[in-house]
Amino acid sequence: MRTALITIVSGRHEHLRRQLEWVSRLDPQPHAHVVVSMGDAQITDLVAAHGTQRGVVVVMDPADELPLASARNLGVATASDLGADAVVLLDVDCLPDSELIGDYDRALARLGSETAVISGRVKYLPDGMTDADYTSARVAEWGRDHPARVIPEGIELEKADPRMLWSLNIAATVESWNRIGGFDETYVGYGGEDTDFGQRLAAAGGSMRWTGLACAYHQYHPTVTPPVQHAVSIARNANLFRAKWGFDPMEGWLNQMLESGHLRREADQWRATERAR
């Protein structure tokens, strides 16, 4: 199987540098490592300095909001043009276990021609780690599963609710990707596009599968929960999602931002308030 790795990025240079170093240790290596720069002019030089010969950079024009859905589609299209028949999407803040590509190859082979997206394990790393701490043994010891994602141990490919699809560490064959139709590029900015992709998967007759293998380690960075700084795009994307699928995505965030005064609800539409602008 010719499996390409896809990373989309804007900023997060230290995270990308460390990811590139870990990608160089993958065994087997990906068919290509496609890095999609969302308007960040420094990415090409960074990949040239720290990436492998399989690194390919695609640069998108700068935009007012990050085109996350479009960037993922562009990465997969580029990988397909390079001859890949399977793809792994890995967020820039994730470090791949050395066997990640092999784990996904074996899992995809087990599913054959079935339309599916496989979600590997993600272990979250703590704050305060130094460069010397980023060893395979230490990240395996310190990483913790996300409490909202209960993933089975071992090689079983357990069917899961597609509403739980997060694209930070997933794999699919290019054939499955094309049946799903990729990400909906009308989603711009933060929020909703992953959940929409899960619904597109289900609508195509496909399934989401957990695997306890294909592990990635999420590098720590500060977060705001709920992400009120993205209230405008979250409201817009939630409205788009509801118009398509008939229910709200990101219900926890939406309700929390309603309570905090960053969002309001008008009939069935979410609106960002002045507090969020």
UniProtKB/TrEMBL annotation:
Q: Which family does it belong to?
A: Belongs to the glycosyltransferase 2 family.
Query: Among its keywords, does the record have Glycosyltransferase?
Result: yes
**To which pathway does this protein belong?**
Cell wall biogenesis; cell wall polysaccharide biosynthesis
Q: Fetch the InterPro entries from UniProt.
A: Galactosyl_T_C (IPR027791), Nucleotide-diphossugar_trans (IPR029044)
Please tell me whether the keyword Transferase is annotated for this protein.
yes
Domain Galactosyltransferase C-terminal: where?
A: 166-210
Q: Which organism is it from?
A: Kocuria atrinae
* One Pfam family, short name: Glyco_transf_7C
User: Domain of life here?
Assistant: Bacteria
Q: What's this protein's name?
A: Glycosyltransferase
For this UniProt record, the keywords arranged alphabetically read as follows: Glycosyltransferase, Transferase
